[in-house]
Design brief:
By secondary structure, the chain is mostly helical. The protein contains 5 helices and no strands.
Length: 169
């Protein structure tokens, strides 16, 4: 049996690992994007947000007397690496990457929604506020991707149909 604070701490560690995975995934994607400057610019912005989110999570975890999980963090990074390698092999990498990013952002939204409630239930308003702040950034990124998926798809299809033009990234 675990207390609300113990569950909160465990979920914060999960969130930190998730942000480690996001950072690795986003950096890999940003490095490979050549022909989609708006997408690259938004990803670079979200990388900075992700790094800030990690710092907030470390503060929350520390305030609760815990530390991040090296095992969970490494697993997240390895998963992101696997996604990047798989993406590089696809001829439609940019479209699949944008779709995967949209899905990942929605997983993060669910995670931070749970964390806000768990922190509030545990009486930790500082953590609840930090998670609300992160949640806003994740919602904004998911919204941006959702709104730009059609544009990214059209640009890819146009480039793909043009001889001697790379569409992949």
């Amino acid at each position: 049996m675990a207390t609300p604070t113990e569950n909160l701490l465990d979920w914060l560690r999960d969130a930190h690992a998730m942000e480690q995975q996001a950072e690795t995934m986003l950096k890999g994607q940003a490095e490979r994007l050549e022909h989609y400057p708006k997408l690259r610019e938004r990803i670079v912005q979200h990388i900075a947000e992700t790094e800030g989110q990690q710092r907030l999570l470390v503060e929350c975890i520390g305030r609760l007397g815990g530390s991040t999980s090296k095992l969970k963090d490494m697993a997240g990074k390895l998963m992101a690496f696997g996604q990047a390698v798989g993406g590089m092999a696809m001829s439609d990498e940019v479209v699949k990457g944008a779709m995967a990013g949209y899905v990942f952002e929605n997983v993060e939204i669910a995670s931070y929604t749970v964390l806000v409630e768990a922190a509030t239930f545990a009486g930790d308003e500082l953590t609840a506020d930090a998670c609300r702040s992160i949640l806003k950034e994740e919602i904004a990124m998911a919204k941006w991707l959702g709104e730009h998926l059609p544009e990214i798809t059209q640009a890819f299809l146009s480039r793909s149909a043009t001889p001697d033009v790379e569409a992949k990234r």
